[in-house]
Design brief:
Strand content: 25-35%
Oligomer: single chain
Number of strands: 5
Distance between the termini: 33 Å
Radius of gyration: 15 Å
CATH class: Alpha Beta
Structural class: alpha/beta
Strand order of the largest sheet: 3-2-1-4-5
Shape: globular
Length: about 150
């Protein structure tokens, strides 16, 4: 039986001064939509980008064919340009021998993506793409309002 095709848009937000962050996702299957967003303290923008993808994929109830759209090159390229394989092969070290940041989230993403067929897509942020603008607003609102999980 073919897997359901779900499209997911994700975004993260972080204030570099306060380190207050927010993440959000919007998923669509046919005419059905689901979204979520939350605040996280003491974080970084990259952690929020990764957390949005983790939370979205974790919300899926069954293995799916997923198109995941992000405005984070960091997130997309880790999967599409072989960064994750290299980091794992190097014992979770970068080319400069430094520990890979956000290893905990990368490991969760690797587990979650093994359950689904994920096609990674990049979109330019703040460029008028309706769903990307929507998750951007949701992440920003969650950060500013310090909104916890629903």
């Amino acid at each position: 039986m073919p897997r359901k095709h779900v499209t997911i848009w994700t975004d993260g937000s972080c204030d570099t001064t306060s380190r207050e962050g927010g993440w959000a996702y919007l998923m669509r299957y046919g005419t059905h939509e689901r979204s979520d967003a939350a605040h996280e303290p003491d974080t970084t923008n990259n952690r929020m980008e990764l957390t949005a993808a983790v939370e979205a994929l974790a919300a899926l109830k069954e293995p799916c064919q997923v198109t995941l759209v992000t405005d984070s090159q960091y997130l997309k390229k880790a999967f599409t340009d072989g960064w994750l394989e290299t980091w794992q092969r190097n014992g979770w070290r970068t080319a400069s021998k430094q520990p890979v940041k956000n290893q905990d989230l990368w490991e969760r993403l690797l587990h979650l993506t093994s359950e689904h067929d994920v096609n990674w897509r990049w979109t330019k942020g703040h460029d008028g793409h309706a769903e990307n603008e929507s998750v951007d607003r949701m992440a920003l609102r969650a950060r500013r309002e310090r909104r916890t999980r629903r």
